[in-house]
Amino acid sequence: MTVAPLVHFLLALALAPLLPGIINKVKAFFAGRQGPPVAQLYYDLWKLFGKGATYSQTTTWVFRLGPPAGLACAAVALAVAPLGSAPALLHFPGDLVLFCYVFGMMRFATILAALDTGSAFEGMGASREAAFSALAEPALFLALVVVCRETDSLSLSTMLPAVSAAKWAETGPALALAAAALFVVFLAENCRIPVDDPNTHLELTMIHEVMVLDHGGPDLGLILYAAALKMWTLGLLLAGLVAPVNTGRWWVDALVGLAGLAVVAVAAGVVESIMARLRLIRVPRLLVVATALAALAMFLVR
User: What is the domain range of residue 279?
Assistant: First the structure.
């Protein structure tokens, strides 16, 4: 069991870029296209890390610090998130607070880097990112509090493995509402449809994409890789909550957790294929609905 946390951490570092590829494959299937290969992000990262970086004279060290700081925050969040029944590489009572706020630090670094360019365009995207994230955080916290209440634990490494089929049979509606809220947060935090479109380049609809327009080469590679790690980490919450398996063998539970991550990616691809991107004025309503679902789940648990 002692090697399980390290194995998960290394697996995540190696396999996280596959999740965006799975989503793109599902979208291509719905569109009747072949689409890019599942490993496309690996090729993109290889190409970006082989290039040089160009910096504007208006930027400072804040702009250069944004990508590596974001990747460091994503790595810390990954170290706190467990896979299957094995504990995380970094676990302690209350680590869920660190898990939530380290993503806030990641977002803060990206916003500062965008503002450091002095571009009104990137400032607009940073403002949208800050506003929508402020609405997504309550849903994330309340959903995790529901799981805390059900499992009497304050650590992700003991909360998620404690969720079982018996727990679902006892308080299924509350856990289902918490899972729905987490799925909305998953889509919002990873800039997926219906909240954001990672492939758009329309000035009036861009949110996260506009903040990284001035990054290129290795810096853009770090941003894309950190985004893949973030998707993997948030997907672990959903996979651990919706598909709880605790066989006593960590490698079996890890395989089930990896399958759950793939299912989460497929579900995100299906949502992007059957829905259009929401208008910006409706995105806050969706995030408020997610918070309301988590609050209702908390009420049912109480």
Answer: 4-301
